[in-house]
């Protein structure tokens, strides 16, 4: 056990050092080379250094959140329009989603090739054991999370999907207990119980309840919890996945293959090839129509990556919860999804449990960092926290990994 902890600490420390070495640095003499130095100088001349830095930071975070909202909400609305029975009714969500993963793999490969700083350490090799024991569990869980979720949109409303999918944190915690990423406490058990109560309230008051759709989205939520638990285990010990782009590059092929194989049994490949989409829109427009969500998902990943590096834990958590409410509001306006009082009560209960967990997590993070370090936890970005916690012993990095998972589950529809 001691040797395992030491090896993990060495891997984490070397990964942290490697990431710091790859970050661009600027000296005082070449501060003019900073991308935003001119903007800061102009604003500083009017408002002073402290106020200008604050305004520029707020502006950057606001723009990043708006871009994240735009891509994420657009993706949710697009998927519902594409797969919904009463919309476009394209009944091949698994084949389509497998194609989206392939597109994200290609775009990730392009980004990693263009920006060498995003590449993994050159001395790390990709072995068969790495593929089967580290990458494939993550790829399979991720593909089932997103694939089953898109399947459920064929028969349930986007509002109901979003409300049930918000219960993912419950499964994140359960799998975190199972994989010993988090120590069970009565407070966390209470969070799980409260989220379960919220789900019951949402389901009991759903006027157009479809059992198959509910089971699909609930299964997607379960795989979402498994997805982020195995992903955290991967990110802790595997330096080839040290940023979202290299992670997508390694996971997307397995995600596409897994979902394509399942689709061969669940969906009819011959019917997919002969679908009306190809005759109504033509081959080029049909491919473009199916490929667009993959590009949107990739752009969403970029905005999330930048937001994680910039926004504080509190602001990111609040923004994630608010996005869920926006998706429900847009689905009601665009698709006419009906919401009942108990639906909203159940959603409020679930969001309250998520907010309570985020508060407990923030308090725990504050206690894990040295009291005399004078770090402003509320205003630190998740990326900064990762730099603080990565070199630490394994016991200290567990809550951070789970913290990242709880934030990520709010960001993915």
UniProtKB/TrEMBL annotation:
GO terms for cellular component: membrane. It comes from the Eukaryota. Its main location: membrane. The chain crosses the membrane at residues 54-78, 90-115, 158-179, 186-204, 210-235, 247-266, 286-307, 314-335, 341-360. Keywords: Membrane, Transmembrane, Transmembrane helix. Residues 1-14 have a biased composition (Low complexity). It is found in: Membrane. Residues 1-37, 388-413 are annotated as: Disordered. The keyword Lipid metabolism does not apply. Residues 60-358 form the Sugar phosphate transporter domain. InterPro entries: Sugar_P_trans_dom (IPR004853), TPT_transporter (IPR050186). It is a multi-pass membrane protein. This is Sugar phosphate transporter domain-containing protein. It comes from Tortispora caseinolytica NRRL Y-17796. The lineage of its organism: Eukaryota, Fungi, Dikarya, Ascomycota, Saccharomycotina.
């Amino acid at each position: 056990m001691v040797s395992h902890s030491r090896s993990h600490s060495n891997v984490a420390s070397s990964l942290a050092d490697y990431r710091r070495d790859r970050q661009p640095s600027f000296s005082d003499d070449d501060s003019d080379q900073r991308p935003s130095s001119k903007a800061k100088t102009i604003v500083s001349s009017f408002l002073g250094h402290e106020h200008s830095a604050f305004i520029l930071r707020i502006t950057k975070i606001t723009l990043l959140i708006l871009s994240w909202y735009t891509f994420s909400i657009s993706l949710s609305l697009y998927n519902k329009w594409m797969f919904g029975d009463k919309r476009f009714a394209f009944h091949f969500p698994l084949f389509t989603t497998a194609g989206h993963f392939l597109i994200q793999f290609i775009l990730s490969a392009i980004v990693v090739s263009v920006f060498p700083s995003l590449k993994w350490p050159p001395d790390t090799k990709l072995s068969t054991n790495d593929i089967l024991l580290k990458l494939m569990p993550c790829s399979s869980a991720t593909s089932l999370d997103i694939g089953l979720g898109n399947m459920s949109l064929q028969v349930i409303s986007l509002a109901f999907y979003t409300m049930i999918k918000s219960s993912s944190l419950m499964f994140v915690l359960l799998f975190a207990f199972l994989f010993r990423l988090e120590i069970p406490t009565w407070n966390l058990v209470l969070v799980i119980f409260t989220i379960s109560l919220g789900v019951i309230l949402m389901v009991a008051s759903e006027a157009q309840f479809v059992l198959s759709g509910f089971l699909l989205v609930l299964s997607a939520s379960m795989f979402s919890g498994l997805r982020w638990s195995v992903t955290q285990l991967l990110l802790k010990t595997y330096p080839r996945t040290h940023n979202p782009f290299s992670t997508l590059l390694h996971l997307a092929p397995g995600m596409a293959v897994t979902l394509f194989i399942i689709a061969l049994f669940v969906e009819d490949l011959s019917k997919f090839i002969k679908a009306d989409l190809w005759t109504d829109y033509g081959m080029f427009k049909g491919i473009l129509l199916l490929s667009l969500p993959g590009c949107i998902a990739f752009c969403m990943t970029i905005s999330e990556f930048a937001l994680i590096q910039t926004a504080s834990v509190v602001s990111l958590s609040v923004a994630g919860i608010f996005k869920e409410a926006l998706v429900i509001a847009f689905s009601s306006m665009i698709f006419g999804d009906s919401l009942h009082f108990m639906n909203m009560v159940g959603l409020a209960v679930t969001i309250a449990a998520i907010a309570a967990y985020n508060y407990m997590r923030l308090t725990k993070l504050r206690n894990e960092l040295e009291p005399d370090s004078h770090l402003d936890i509320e205003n630190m970005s998740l990326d900064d926290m990762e730099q603080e916690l990565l070199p630490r012993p394994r016991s200290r990095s567990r809550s951070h990994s789970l913290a990242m998972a709880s934030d990520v589950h709010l960001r993915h529809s």
